[in-house]
Design goal:
CATH superfamily of the largest domain: Dihydrodipicolinate Reductase, domain 2
Shape: globular
Number of domains: 2
Number of helices: 11
Number of strands: 15
CATH class of the largest domain: Alpha Beta
Oligomer: single chain
């Protein structure tokens, strides 16, 4: 049993609250949030200790690992504090605001000999893992097109995500980090990106609707549709088109069809968020114990930050931007 602390009890933390009770391998023993009422309410049903300061949590709790689920501008400071205490760190996405910060966090983890990576939930969805195996096995033939979409109408006007000083950007930074990780998982390193902003309806100071294209080392171009402003009610969030067939990963059902068959084959029941979070913490636990490899490595997390940074350069310049050579091959 790996004992975890959790820093930040906001929206994303609520799924951790559901996932920990379903795991026989991981236990949440302490939480911290600057809002005392929130920390107390979160900790009570889990039998965890509650704190208003992460340093106090570190000093007064018996734990081996910590999950950081605060806004991304705070991630480097909190992560390095725990690393220096020998605590393993699973940090929510976006990992941080800059490539320089990401490199600093990775260096601190190496210096203190702790396990460290970014938490990106879609890598752990069972249907995504099954689909990746099909793509890798050549079931769909040569991949021609890859599509990803995260399109929902969400009021971001009062959330920290719309404050660029805290978030580092808008929907491209937030949901785009998931997209980049998904593309890299299926298709390998990303070499070039182009991003175009499509306007907004909420009057945000950050990007609200973005179209992203990413070219991989294997010359496949992936397209991404990101929006906080339009509820498109799309049934699938990933579609893969190959020379031998097509595959869709949906919110409620996943299926594929080969060109040689008239019928679709259902291979999964879609997106199970709690399952994904349980798998995420258990993979981290196994990596700490040395019984498995991280599904997302620290180097992979750095590559995601590098791609997003290139995408924002493109968003501002309206042209294809290269991903740095040192990270594109990670």
């Amino acid at each position: 049993m790996l004992k975890f602390g959790l820093i930040g009890t906001g929206g994303i933390a609520q799924t951790y609250a559901q996932a920990f009770p379903t795991s026989d391998l991981c236990e949440l023993v302490a939480v911290a949030d600057v809002r005392k009422d929130s920390a107390d309410a979160f900790a009570e049903p889990l039998g965890a200790k509650a704190f208003t300061d992460y340093k106090e949590l570190a000093e007064r709790s018996d734990l081996e690992a910590v999950i950081i689920s605060t806004p991304p501008n705070s991630h480097p400071e909190i992560a390095e504090y725990f690393m220096k205490r020998g605590v393993h760190v699973l940090c929510e996405k976006p990992l941080c605001l800059t490539v320089a910060d990401a490199k600093r966090m990775i260096a601190a983890a190496e210096e203190n000999n702790v396990t460290f990576t970014m938490a990106s939930k879609f890598r752990y969805v069972e249907d995504v893992i099954k689909a990746k195996a099909m793509v890798a096995s050549g079931t769909l033939g040569e991949i021609i097109q890859f599509e990803n979409a995260f399109t929902a109408k969400v009021d971001m006007s009062t959330r920290w995500n719309s404050d660029s000083a805290v978030s580092g950007g808008g929907v491209l930074m937030d949901n785009g980090t998931h997209s980049v990780d998904i593309i890299r998982y299926f298709l390998g390193p990303i070499t070039d990106v182009i991003a175009v902003e499509a306007g907004g309806t909420q009057g945000l100071s950050v990007d609200e609707n973005v179209k992203l294209m990413a070219r991989t080392k294997n010359s496949v171009v992936a397209t991404v549709d990101l929006t906080w402003g339009i509820n498109k009610e799309l049934p699938n969030f990933i579609s893969v088109y190959g020379t031998a067939g097509t595959l869709h990963i949906g919110w409620r059902e996943s299926k594929f069809k080969l060109n040689s068959s008239p019928d679709w084959t259902v291979f999964g029941s879609g997106y199970d968020k709690v399952q994904a979070f349980r798998s995420k913490i258990e993979n981290f636990r196994d990596a700490v114990r040395g019984t498995d490899d991280l599904l997302i490595t620290a180097e992979g997390a750095l590559a995601s930050v590098e791609v997003i940074e290139a995408a924002y350069r493109s968003l501002n310049g309206s042209k294809w931007e290269p991903v740095s050579r040192s990270v594109a091959g990670a």
